[in-house]
Amino acid sequence: MSISRFTAQGFRCLGTIGFEPDSDYTLIYGANASGKTSLLEALAYLGRGKSFRGAPPTNLIQHGAHEFVLFGQIEIWGRQVRVGVRNSRAGLEAKVDGDSSGGAAALAAALPLQVIDPDVHNLVSGGPDERRRFLDWLAFHVEPEYLALWRQFRRALKQRNAALKGNGSRESLAAWDTEFCRLGERVDGVRKAVLEAALETLQAHGSGLLGADIDFRYASGWSKDSSLREALEQHLERDCVLGTTQVGPHRADLRLIYDERQARRLVSRGQQKLLASAMVLAATDIAQTVLERPLLLLLDDPAAELDRVSLGRLMGQVAELGSQVIATSLERDESLFPAAPRVFHVEQGELRAAARGGPRPVRNTPDRP
Ligand SMILES: Nc1ncnc2c1ncn2[C@@H]1O[C@H](COP(=O)(O)OP(=O)(O)O)[C@@H](O)[C@H]1O
Ligand SMILES: [Mg+2]
Hints:
The protein has 369 residues and is α/β, with parallel strands linked by helices. It folds into two domains: 1-112 and 301-362, Rossmann fold; 115-294, Glutathione S-transferase Yfyf (Class Pi), Chain A, domain 2. Helices cover 45% and strands 21% of the residues. The protein contains eleven helices and 13 strands. Helix 5 packs parallel to helix 10 (269-291) and helix 6 packs across helix 7. It binds adenosine-5'-diphosphate and magnesium ion. The site of adenosine-5'-diphosphate (ADP) has 14 residues, from helix 1. Magnesium ion binds at residues 36-37, 300-301.
């Protein structure tokens, strides 16, 4: 699978742009604020129906425009799939081959992708939310029924919280408790199974990039000595006071386990980025095995925070995955890739194909007429 054509209109600082990425390696280079991140964000939006930076869609619509429109042609097993997104103040419209019934989930199925950007370290240094999302992303790809289950659980959580806030009777709270526990235990079970299946790959990528052992442990979001039902009962008083559910899979974490020496190294932003990148690459690896096709891997300024050796290791692991890679850099640095990439230059939101073989050498002698 690869995205063979992409166009964007009205997205952040980008002009009306169109380009044809290489099926292996594409490099987008340009100065600060030229539009590199915007371009990757637009590509990611086409595969997720939302920003990877968590930016609200209204911030992504170009100043002065009323909507943005993205389009991609994706080759899947020799078949051309057309994917489009239109986002106006009225909301998101997502189409896959003209069908708009599937929403963002249909986008993700057509263009599964992962992103490594300069904020990726948050996966390691930030709170549990990002790690939970990471594990859920894996679960969505490994367990086809997980998405529906997860949505049902979210609904039960919302209803239980509404009942706690006094919008329902004690009986309705008890009814939502039963539903919440039934679905919550299942969400918990799938996540544990997914982590167990992913563990070896996560460890291998982690030690490959950091040169040290890293382990991963799932924390359910309630005391492991009790059932979810018992934990809910123990927290009922507090839940009623706060009006929200304090325990459950929505409070789970994917804990990273490492020794003291490693902990000292992981104070460094560069090391955090390496570990987080290892997790993203492991997830990409697993999803590619399950889907039996390469993913799109977007690397925004991979060189940021990394020394040359670490960057080399990271790009070496990226190359081994065989994903379709689109990376950005400040300078035209083709040595990031093991094979010549297709190169584009971005300047003030405009994208141009760069001449093959790098910038032309300066001539000392004038051309003959
Ligand atoms: N909604 C928007 N409309 C127009 N320009 C925007 C919008 N949002 C951000 N920008 C501009 O886009 C530019 C940043 O582009 P970005 O893709 O982050 O650059 P780079 O990654 O190359 O440093 C900034 O100049 C910013 O002001
Ligand atoms: Mg940027």
